[in-house]
Design brief:
Blueprint lengths: L1 H14 L18 H6 L11 H4 L10 E19 L2 E5 L3 E12 L2 E18 L4 H20 L8 E25 L4 E24 L10 E22 L5 E8 L5 E9 L14 E3 L4 E12 L2 E11 L13 E11 L4 E11 L17 E11 L4 E12 L2 E6 L2 E19 L2
Helix pairs in contact: 1-4
């Protein structure tokens, strides 16, 4: 018991200066549709049903009818935690779907959408990462302090981590229901409500060993943990669309903060580590989804070329995150839509993302919130009066971030993400 107490004391001291598992950065996700992947700027778009998430008041510029839009993203995720020059990486892909429906009739419209608004899938660090490495280093330090206290020669002390792994997943589905109204040819407004159901899971293990064990003092020590968290909440959406001419369109929408209190369900914790990370079975902790203010402008240079630029603000500072240092984040970009023919369009877009997490030590090791440059391209084909197909391809170039959590330890976060998206929209009548 005394041995375990010293180990846990040092582990607490070590972890208080590092990122908690799900802490830091912007939580909001906006890559909901294939149309978005192709141009990366949709806040002033009026051409497809996915705009119920990007420019909900803009649906009043669509033709009368019932629309169904379905998208699926394949996301290749290459994440790397480089610790003292050694790579700890993962390449587990994710598939993220999105569903958007609109019914528009003259002066009014109703819409419904299901999309991922938090997280985006699973990561699997089969050989561990910064989280398991930091915990292992802390346990080694604590165990060796106890061996030193018991006057065990240093030749028998713990020397390293023999095995480690970590798997984590974060998803948050948003169910959006709302309506829009056309005031006149220039102005339209929208109002909606969003229900968010979020789940977060983690499991992992780590074993520290001595080169020359001195039983029972330096037998292998294993920490094995697994837990789940669930939360749900409601938020509102307000939108405005302004079209002073057929060529120029402005879109604006505000998504309110969604209060999310995650309740923990601990499956196993052999070393008592999770309470030190703020995870207690049955307890709740707050991790609200920040409010979003998004604006865009679209301009048709001629019948073939449309240009759109967006600015999206993530109001992280007002989200009341617990135990997290984070500033407001933003995205700014520009995209071009070119019509080859009446039925075939090509798109190209650029987006810069500032996550709002300025220091690497405040980032989540499993999903580091790095600033990024994104390029996207797409094709849209109108097969007939009812069916439209969309293909999108994008790549995210992340900025690396490094820090020194303790003397002699250097950690660098690296990421690269590639999106491939397919979508289809069908107009039922």
């Amino acid at each position: 018991m005394k041995k375990l107490g010293i180990i846990l004391f040092i582990l607490v001291f070590f972890l208080t200066g590092s990122s908690l598992l799900w802490a830091g950065g912007s939580d909001n996700k906006t890559n909901w549709s294939a149309e978005y992947i192709g141009i990366l700027n949709r806040n002033a778009a009026t051409d497809a049903a996915d705009i119920v998430m990007y420019n909900p008041a803009g649906v009043m510029k669509m033709e009368n009818g019932l629309y169904g839009n379905l998208s699926a993203h394949f996301i290749a995720k290459d994440y790397n935690n480089k610790i003292n020059g050694t790579d700890f990486d993962q390449d587990e892909p994710s598939v993220v779907p999105g569903l958007f429906t609109v019914y528009k009739e003259d002066k009014w419209a109703a819409f419904f959408a299901v999309s991922n608004v938090i997280g985006g899938g699973e990561v699997d660090y089969k050989n561990g990462n910064a989280t398991t490495g930091e915990a292992g280093s802390a346990i080694i330090a604590g165990a060796n302090a106890l061996l030193d206290f018991n006057q065990i020669p240093s030749a028998f002390w713990y020397t390293g981590i023999s095995s480690q792994n970590l798997k984590a997943e974060a998803m948050g589905l948003g169910f959006t229901l709302g309506g829009a109204y056309e005031i006149n040819d220039m102005w339209s407004v929208s109002l909606g409500i969003r229900y968010v159901k979020s789940t977060r899971e983690m499991e992992g293990s780590m074993t520290v060993t001595a080169t020359t064990p001195y039983s029972p003092y330096s037998d292998p020590l294993t920490a094995d943990v697994a837990f789940e968290e669930e939360a749900d909440g409601f938020g509102g959406i307000i939108g405005i669309n302004f079209a002073p001419s057929d060529a120029l369109n402005f879109g604006l929408h505000y998504d309110t903060k969604v209060d999310l209190d995650y309740e923990a369900d601990v499956k196993r914790d052999t070393a008592g580590i999770l309470p030190l990370m703020g995870i207690v079975d049955g307890a709740e902790r707050s991790r609200n989804l920040p409010a979003v203010l998004a604006a865009g402008v679209s301009y048709k240079i001629n019948p073939k070329i449309r240009v759109e630029s967006n600015l999206t603000l993530y109001l992280n500072e007002d989200a009341d995150f617990e135990n997290s240092a984070v500033d407001n984040g933003y995205e700014i970009g520009i995209g071009v839509d070119y019509a080859f023919t009446d039925t075939l369009n090509a798109t190209l877009g650029y987006l810069y993302t500032d996550s709002g997490v300025d220091k690497a030590e405040d980032m989540t090791p499993e999903l580091p919130e790095l600033n990024a440059h994104t390029l996207g391209a797409g094709l849209r084909y109108q097969m007939n009066d009812k069916l439209k197909l969309t293909f999108g391809l994008g790549h995210v170039f992340y900025d690396d971030a490094s820090f020194v959590p303790a003397p002699g330890i250097s950690i660098t976060y690296e990421k690269a993400v590639t999106f491939v998206a397919f979508g289809m929209e069908y107009k039922f009548f």
